[in-house]
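3.2 Worked example (two chains)
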Amino acid sequence: MRIDPRFRNIQNFRDLGGLETDDGFRVRKGLFYRGAGLGYFSEEELEEFSKLGIRTIMDLRSSMEMKELPDPEIAGVRFIAHDGLSVEGSEDIDWSPEGMRKIGGEADEQLAKIRDYYQRIAFGNRTYQIMMKQIVDGELPIYFHCATGKDRTGVAAMIILLALGVREDQIRNDYLLSNVFRKKILEDSLAKVADVAKDHPEINELITIQDGVLEKTYETVRSSILERYGTFGEYLKAEFFLDEDTIKALKDRCLERIM
């Protein structure tokens, strides 16, 4: 597990450095960081964060989320805020605690809407396009985050790692690592609905989406990309204008050979 002892597990904070490609390279450390909103960080954690040399912070939260808990200013860092939820159909989903505790037919309807959302999130998403342009332009190191650093952030990490040619198992493991960092939160939430779940197990799926991540969500995003474009290369080219030369330059800058 890629734990950074300077940050509490609840922050879901990690460096993408060290993840490996199929051809003997790995992502350089200190370039790509992901995690939760900085408003959740303690003063000590913010002090450590300021030492990382972050050049760009990409906030994937909605304007309402940003207003409720804004990121603190950090000297010398460029802040870019753009709503990662801005996907057609996302406005129809009730992401509130009440919405994520539905049962029966209402839960089935909620889950169907969420599944549709994840089938769309990787396409025409201006937030991810802005983020990838910053990366291609060399605005690194970058810290990208949503509220808890697991869903919108997880897909953002997936896109970056696809562009760098990281192995599929490593991309999957990074996505699912949020469940390890947020294990106690997830377990506590599931325990609170344990009685209801005896007759309505569907509530467990909604709770896991709320406080953790589902492997099948990762699969939904991945398979949707392949169904639409056939290959990840075509996806990166169509959605982010990453042709072969651009991807090669990105890899040259961000990967190192494994000794």
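3.2.1 Second chain
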Amino acid sequence: MSLYSLLGALEIGLIFSLVALGVLISFRILNFPDLTVDGSFPLGGAVAATLIAAGHDPFLATACAVVAGAIAGFITGWLNVRLKIMDLLASILMMIALYSINLRVMGAPNVPLISESTVFTIIQPAWLPDYVLRPLALLVVVMAAKFGVDWFFSSQYGLALRATGANPRMARAQGIATGRATLAGMALSNALVALAGALFAQTQGGSDISMGIGTIVIGLAAVIIGESVLPARRLMLTTLAAVLGAILYRFFIALALNSDFIGLKAQDLNLVTAVLVTIALVLPATRKKLFGRKNGRA
């Protein structure tokens, strides 16, 4: 695999690291099965691309995309907390609604950004190639997001959110407003996903209505792979595992699709994804069995 392909895989992996962090917050910390991700990812891309194409500042467009994602996550939480709709169903309803909303935002199935300035073209020095700059810039963004999440969930309010996901009854008994905590957590989760969508649209040269299909699967795969590679209970290591899982996932995909002896092509992407997710799901149980047998023999 060429250096260009490696850097491309790293670039996409870093973008989906933000998705993995968002999925980690909803699924692992809040214990909220959230499928809004498949809608909030293209929402971030749609808002950012539409504003940039209209001549607005790319940084402002990206910030607006993050706010839009937070609103989408907040509404999902509101459907569950205030209207008492089951969490999974609430996220499905929001995901379906976002498909139409994204079309409304873009006004078309896609918005190209080929000739527009993006956050990457603005900060790019003349001596540095774009395929090197983008991974470096994304690494800074991902590390900032990772440490921001670590700091937030170590604060008093962040600990309240973690208690809400771990044991909501006990949290309410301790005076925690679990409903508000769920709303805040869902907003933060989808804000990170929308940020990923906004950056993805700017690296890929535009936003498309179908770019969010399978995002939740990728996010879950990244979290599961990360937990298999770096099992830990400390939050700092858990968020790091999610980031590493997303990067490893994209490297596995790139390696599989660029290996001539396997014979896979671009249309086999979903097949490779399914196989990788299956392996990631089976691996922890297999490791436990192997270690259990070794300990038993010892």
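3.3 Remarks
DSSP finds twelve helices and two strands in the chain.
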